[in-house]
Structures are given as C-alpha cells and as structure tokens.
Amino acid sequence: MPDKLRLLVAIANYGSKNDEYLARVVAEYRSMPYDVDVVLLSNIRKELGPGVEVVVGLPARDPWSLPFAHRQIFANRLSDYDIFIYSEDDILITGRNVRAFLRVQGALPKDEIPGFMRYEQGPSGAVNYPDVHGVFHWAPDSVRRRGEFTLAFFTNEHSAAYMVAREQLEQAINSGGFLVKPHQGKYDLLCTGATDIYTECGLQKLICISHLDEFLIHHLPNKYVGTAYGVDDHELRRQIQVLLRIGQNGCDTASLFQTESKLKVGRYSKNYYEPVVPEVIEAIPSGVRSVLSIGCGWGAMESHLAKKGLRVFAVPLDPVIPGGAESAGVEIIPGDFAHALRELAGTKFDCLLLSNVLHLVPNPTEVLLSFAALLPAGGTTVAVAPNMARLASTWKALRGDPSAAARGGYEKTGVHRVSQGVLRDWFRSTGMKVEKVLHLVPESAGEIRRLALSVLRPWMADEFVVVARKRAVSSTG
Question: Topology of domain 6-249, per CATH?
Fold first, then answer.
C-alpha cells in the first residue's frame, strides 16, 4: 500500500434537492489526509470544482437506478485506488470512519467487511437510528471476536453507503454479482444498488459493536426523527450491551423461529418493533389477570399490559430484543418453543397472545395446541395475523407484483397463506372456539375506512385479530 492512501468516492446525486447536503459531503472528503478523487453520478450537469468528476446519465430509465452507475467505474479503476466508497448524497462519512474501517478490516478474514450504521439527530440533540425498524434485527448467533474487536450481523444491510478495500472489490467483481444490470433484490431498487456488495458477492457486512461510535455515519436530512423508522440511542445501546455479553459469555443465542419471510422486501415478516395496537389490547377480556405472549419483540404491548397491573410472561423472538418489556416488569422466558414449554410446565395463564406468529411458524396448529395446554378451560387466546386475501394485495398480485401475495407453499415462501377461514380452521382443529374475528383496516383507507360496509371489511383489513376460547374437556361414563 502506498505511503498516502488513495480513495475513489462515488456519490449518487439525482436532481438538485440535496445539493446543500452534497456540498457538505464533498467538503468532508476534501478535508481528508488522503489522495481522494470524487465522482459525482447525476442526471444533470453540475460544476463542483476541482477534484470532482461529474458523470451524467442513468443506467436505466428508472431514476432509482442511478446508484448502479458507480459499479463499472469502480471496476475500470480497480488498480488505481486502495479504498472505494459509494454513498448517497446525504451521507456524511468522516476521516474517523475511514480510519476505523482500515483498522478493523485488517483483523477480518477476506469474506467479512466492516459496515456502517446511519444515525440522525433531532433539534433537541436526541439521536435516532433509522435503519433499526420493522423486520430488521441483530442476529444473536452472529457475534464474533476478531482480535480486539467484537462484531455482529444486523439484518438490514442497507446504510446508503459502503466502503470496501481493493482486494474485496476484486473479489466482488469476480463473483459475478457486482457488475449486473439494475434490479430489485431483497431491497428496493435504490437500496439494492448499495447492498449487492453484501448480498450477492460472497461478502458479509458486520458492524463493529465494540467500537460502534466509529462506525456511525450521519444521515444529514434527519428526516426520520420522530417517525416509526428507528430507535433512540438508549434502545440501540441496550441491544449492543446484550450482544457484547453474548460475545463475552457465550450465552444462549437461540431465536424462537424464522421471523423473515422468503418473499420480496420481507413481505409478511414479523415486526420486531410492533406498537401498542388498541384493538388488540381491547380484545383481551376484562377479567384476565395473567397473559403469556408468544413471539414478543421489543415489548410495547406486553409492557402496556404489565403497567395496567396484569402479570405478563413473554417468550421473546431472541435474547436481544425484549429489554423494554423486561424493564417494565414482564417476566421473560428465553429459548425456543420446547424450552419455553418446559420452563412453563404446570403454570396456567388466563390469556395467550400471539401477534403475527402463526403464519410464520412451520406448524401453527402444533404451536397453538402446545401452548393451549397452559390455559384453563374457558381461557382466551388472542392472535393477530396478516390478511393475505385483502383487495389491495389481490390487485397487486394480478398485476404481477412479487411482494403482494404468498404464492406457493410454506417451504417456498416462508409463510402460510392466511385468510379468515384458514385461521378458523387452525383454532377449530386445536379444540378452541373462535368467538370473534376483528378486522384492522389501515388508517390510510381514510374516508373509505369510515364508510365501508361491514361486509367489505374482511377484504380491506390489513390484519385479523382472532379471539378464541378453550373448550372444557367433556367427561364420559
């Protein structure tokens, strides 16, 4: 490696909306003590001064294909640079980030790359991590030590930027997964442009959790602060501490079930950060005093119930996620289904809560039957499941949208195709009587939601809430 590191930076910049952020990003690269060349990828001509090459043109008709334009440029200049950086025009990568990458990369095998995580900052200074939302989570069994560093895999590989050394870029190119036409993969077109390096080229992105601050990059618009996208600093640091303990002590890393479907963009996957859903809370009978939640994520609903004075137990999705519930007094039962059933043997609960679990497990009736044994006669089960037969999904499926419907069996899609009738059959086969099915129509339906006839609600609902009771065992003789 030469005395002075050579960096090639490619920045995707469509239109002029983000030019304010772009100027700051370019200034940061110019301030670095390296030989840095910047290539701006744009749909319009711009002049950004010396040291910035502007390449105009889209790889495909879709404007979101612009991120793919950097790949051939990197390949053409492979031998001229030591480090290659791609980013969107509002991602601030600093000299500290580059130094941290170089230090950690030297401790990793050739198929692992140190990755970055975006952060945002609100007007009050509060920090938000927008990549931590929905189906995305830490893989507890991915924690590993590499020399002085501890790293782990976060299932959202997208951070709108990546950094790679020459040797690994060459490996990516040789894999056949890098120099490809614009396409939509696990993520949408825009995000796929920045993530194929990890998902299609035999390389794995790992976050250095022992030195997390050095691998945080600022998403300058701060646009997701105060929205459902992201967690605050306290929650992320809590998760990191659990991962570090796993790395030190080698404790149980079992996950409850495969939470992500095999469908495009993770359709129908389990949301690790489910909010409190009033209709679900209200579906729990007023006389209930104890609840067992199967498939608890970060525990908003479980915490809400505990604060109402109920005794709440929870079998979490994994050992990392349920800290919020635990701090609210929820009693956590870690491990897989079999371990949870052994731990709870002989215990009775007034109510079982299964929120978006049944359609994702291999045998939903087996799960229902196993945990129904913990209910007394007359005990209640409240289950939430997606409505895969809703009109919007059916229309998208007819138009060929691959994310719209779960076509094929469980082995192919990772989900069971759920309808109101399927749910009733599952409960009936396990000896429970369905008392009612609620239809959760999205707020986005607006006026239609308020005016819809009851007969249409099953076709408009995003989710079903099933309320069932355990029948008494009849005696004979």
Answer: Spore Coat Polysaccharide Biosynthesis Protein SpsA; Chain A (3.90.550)
